[in-house]
User: Fold Protein lplB from Deinococcus aquiradiocola.
Amino acid sequence: MTDVLHPSPTAARATARQRGLQRAWRHRGLYLMLLPGLVWFVVFRYWPLWNAQIAFKDFQPVQGILHSPWVGLGNFTQFFHSYYFTQLMTNTLLISFAKLLIGLPPAIVLAVAIHESTRGRLARFTQTVTYLPHFLSWVIVFGILLAMLSPSSGLVNRGLQATGLDPVNFLTDPGRFRFVVIFSDIWKETGWSAILFLAALIGISPSLYEAAEVDGATRWQRIRHISLPGMLDVIVLVTLLRLGHILDAGFYQIYVLYSLPVYSVADVIDTWVYRQGIQNFQFSLATAVGLFKGLIGLLMIVVANRVARRYAGQGLY
Assistant:
């Protein structure tokens, strides 16, 4: 027998379900805003997982995904035993880590400089000028680089010639091409990356800066003991997310900038996959390499997250 104070389990579940529905209806506007994002994830992130099975098949477009023969790990072993495997992994990891290690500090410094600036107009102008390159396509950036680095008419080579030095073909010299890739990426993305760090700085309570100023702290001491610790969570988060894409060295940038003379130092996994998968119609091999990249990215996030939690006390999860 049940009473009002002690309802039966069935009645309690019905009441909880009714309250849940009422709460969902009350916040229906928020759920409607979530809907486009959920649809995007289903269509572009989860539905392609079904097609990823062709990584383990000898995919034949005529037979379709279901009726193509299974080959097990054959596509993976073909990639690992490829003549270019070592070269591709070396180029990809070198360019990715260089972009991460060299590109992250300028974004942090730029965010701190804008935050510390006492001239509002100058800070807004600097922020606008630095993040505008993010919206340029790599084709346009390639045109800018040609105007700057061309051996015949580039501004840099004209400067070298004016000082009596020989012109340098930066875009076809294997010894200099990686520097062009890394520093053009830093120029393009530093301002955009600084937005995240600037948002973290704005979130720090102004009372901390006021108290430090009253105690006589210099500007450098305020940056060292308030700004940088306040940005630590975001720095760790950005680093972990970038490590998850460590095998994405920047397909569009490399594909636009590189040429046959610099293949040995510029050919990365993505460009090789494009040639094999799209131009040579080896869709199964391209998918297998894509799964391999995802697995390495997941392992990098797990390992880096454990290291960050152990030594910095911060982590992604």
In short: The chain has a mean pLDDT of 87.
